[in-house]
Amino acid sequence: QVQLVESGGGPVQTGGSLRLSCVVSGRTFSDYAMGWFRQAPGKEREFVAGISWNPKNTYYADSVKGRFAISRDNSKNTVYLQMDSLNADDTAVYYCAADRRFSSITTAQAGNIPRPVHYDYWGQGTQVTVSS
Q1: What angle do CA 89, 95, 97 make, to 5 degrees?
Q2: Which of 22, 35, 44, 86 is the most exposed place for a label (fewest CB within 10 A)?
Q3: CA 8-10-13 angle, 5° bins
Q4: Backbone phi, then psi, for 84, in 5-degree steps?
Q5: Cβ within 8 Å of residue 42, ≥6 positions away
Q6: Nearest-angstrom CA–CA distance, 72 and 129
Q7: SS3 of 75, please?
Q8: Span of 21-30, 87-96, 116-125 with lowest mean pLDDT
Q9: Average confidence score pLDDT of the chain
């Protein structure tokens, strides 16, 4: 069974930075494409960033391009989300997700936005709250 555990969320001021981490256990980490999603109160869960088994292949939502960076360390079974220049619109619960079929990557390469249905396993989420 695959388990994903996020950490690194918390309160931060506008313009500040946070780095989220997600440790994956239970399977070979490099067998999965990974992604970060977020969900604000009253809104649907939305794609933030994705990464293939090859750390060079990354994809971002337009709203975070240039401010967020996804990365992975296959030796540590960990995926990261570096978030800079945070603003109030970034306030949400952030979820880590694993895609064993790489359907999220195929979707992103076709120019479409990956959706939750493309991912097979999810973490419990970590809250990020941005305030002035």
Answers
A1: 135
A2: 44
A3: 120
A4: -120, 165
A5: none
A6: 24
A7: coil
A8: 21-30
A9: 96
| Contact by Cβ (8 Å): 71, 51 | yes
Other CB atoms within 10 A of residue 21 CB: 17
> According to DSSP H, which parts of 1-132 are helical?
103-109
Give me the count of residues in the chain: 132
Residue 30 CB neighbours (<10 A): 14
> For 33-69, b where at least 16 C-beta lie within 10 A, e where not — what string?
bbbbbbeeeeeebebbbbbbbeeeebbbbeebeeebb
Q: Give whole-number Cα distances, 25 to 4, 19, 132, in Å.
A: 7, 20, 36
How does pLDDT run across 74-89, given as a tens digit for each residue? 999 999 999 999 999 9
| Residue 21 pLDDT class (50, 70, 90 cuts) | very high
Task: Determine the Cα–Cα distance for residues 22 and 107; give it in Å rounded to an integer.
Answer: 22
> What is the chain's percent helix, strand, coil content, to nearest 5?
10, 45, 40
Position 27 scores a pLDDT of 82
